[in-house]
Structures are given as C-alpha cells and as structure tokens.
Write a sequence for this structure.
C-alpha cells in the first residue's frame, strides 16, 4: 500500500495541469471578453455610426491621430538610439538611465501630467518663452504631443532594447572586422535584424499614445483627444454618448493586436 504522500502525489500527477491553468486563466479571459462585448453590443451600430458624424467626435479623432503620429515619430527618432546605447553598455550609469526610462511607465498618468506642468506649464521659464513666441506648450496640440511622448516613448525604448540585446553580437564584430564603421554596421546589420521588434515597440507606443488621458488632460484639455472627448461626453451627456468614441478606440486596440500578431513571426528566424 502506498504511503499517504505517495497517493497524493499520484493523484496530483493524474491531473492535467495544463487544463487547470486554462480553467483558471479562462476566468480572467471571460472577464475581458464580457467587458468588450458589452461595449460593442450596448448600442445598435446605426446609433454609433450616427454619433461618429458629430463634429466634436471627428475633431477629437483628428487630434488624437495627428498627435499620436507625431509623438510616436519623436519616440522612435530618439528612443531607438537610446535603446541601442542601453543594450550595448553596462554599469551604474546604464542602470540609472534604464530606471529613468521606466519611470513614466510606473507613474500614474495624472502625476505625469503634473510633473510636465512643472516644466512646460504656465509660469515656468520654458512655458513663458514658448508662449511669447506664439507656440504655447499647454492647451495646444504641442501639449498633447508632449504628454503622449512622455507616457508612450518608453515602450519604444524598452522593446527595442530587448530586441538589440537578443541579436548575436558576433555578427556586428564580423562586420566591423571587415572595416565597416560602427554606424554602417548598425544600419546594415543590426537595424535590419532588430526592425521587427522595433516596429512592435512603435506600434505599442502609438496605441498607448492614442489612448492617453491623464497626462493629456492636465496639459491640454483643448484640443480634445478621443479619451478626453469620451470623458466630456460621459460627464455632460451620459454613458450612451461616450460609446461611439470608445468603440473607435477599441477598434484601434484590436488593429494594434493584429499588427503585433503579424510581427510575432520573424522572417529572419
């Protein structure tokens, strides 16, 4: 007769742990799906489409798309070089810089907006200089871009850094041993290999930027972005009037997932 511990272990061994994980995780998955499906079916499609023709909704969508494209471009131009430097260096300075990059990811968005107001807000030296030159950094498209760049750019840096670290450095050494400069090696060897991962980071940054609310509303209540328009519609006209813009944002989120899934298979592997 088997000891008690042995019988328990045998019973546990007969349990399909993979099925258990699916069952447990399925509870959370069901929670996600119910919330999304409820949003989509809450109103008939005709009512949603009619609300989408509202000038305020169209203006908010235009502002969000424009600002998100600009902030994502800025994040890419400056974030990819920073990610490469972080991936190819080590030491206390590297760890400190990495911590600074991660800071916007852990700060509450409203706090991020407060932090930015101390730098570019009314009454600050930079804010006053920009306003005097006809380029205000708050209550403007520039304010939206600044807020979005702050909260979204870390996605580019973190994702690109991980991608650069995964590349076999012997390929770079081989290129440089043939007399190729470090810049040319980066352009001809490293960047093509890292591009799928970088593009994934860019996609995540765009999705985060277009959904940004807390920091944006602190810096630029006007012009309204889609998240701000959702909040205004909800607080002034009720939940039903906030649904159309929310559906647009869900559509963008789904499109982001499609892009990320397409990037999941690296043709170079």
């Amino acid at each position: 007769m088997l000891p008690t511990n042995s019988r328990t272990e045998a019973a546990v061994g007969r349990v399909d742990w993979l099925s258990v994980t699916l069952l447990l995780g399925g509870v959370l998955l069901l929670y996600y799906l119910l919330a999304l499906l409820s949003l989509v079916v809450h109103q008939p499609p005709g009512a949603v489409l009619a609300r989408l023709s509202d000038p305020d909704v169209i203006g908010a969508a235009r502002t969000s798309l424009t600002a998100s494209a600009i902030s994502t471009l800025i994040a890419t131009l400056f974030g990819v070089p920073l990610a490469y430097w972080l991936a190819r260096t080590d030491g206390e300075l590297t760890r400190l810089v990495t911590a600074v990059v991660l800071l916007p990811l852990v700060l509450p968005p409203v706090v991020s907006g407060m932090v930015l107001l101390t730098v570019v807000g009314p009454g600050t030296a930079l804010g006053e200089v920009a306003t005097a030159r006809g380029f205000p950094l708050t209550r403007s498209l520039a304010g939206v871009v600044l807020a979005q760049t702050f909260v979204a750019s870390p996605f580019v840096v973190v994702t690109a850094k991980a991608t650069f670290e995964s590349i076999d450095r012997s390929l770079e050494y081989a290129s440089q041993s043939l007399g190729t400069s470090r810049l040319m090696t980066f352009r001809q060897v490293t960047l093509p290999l890292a591009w799928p991962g970088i593009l994934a980071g860019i996609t995540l940054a765009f999705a985060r930027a277009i959904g940004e609310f807390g920091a944006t509303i602190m810096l630029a209540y006007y012009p309204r972005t889609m998240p701000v328009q959702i909040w205004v519609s909800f607080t002034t006209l009720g939940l039903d009037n906030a649904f159309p813009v929310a559906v647009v944002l869900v559509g963008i989120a789904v499109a982001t997932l499609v892009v990320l899934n397409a990037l999941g298979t690296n043709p170079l592997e």
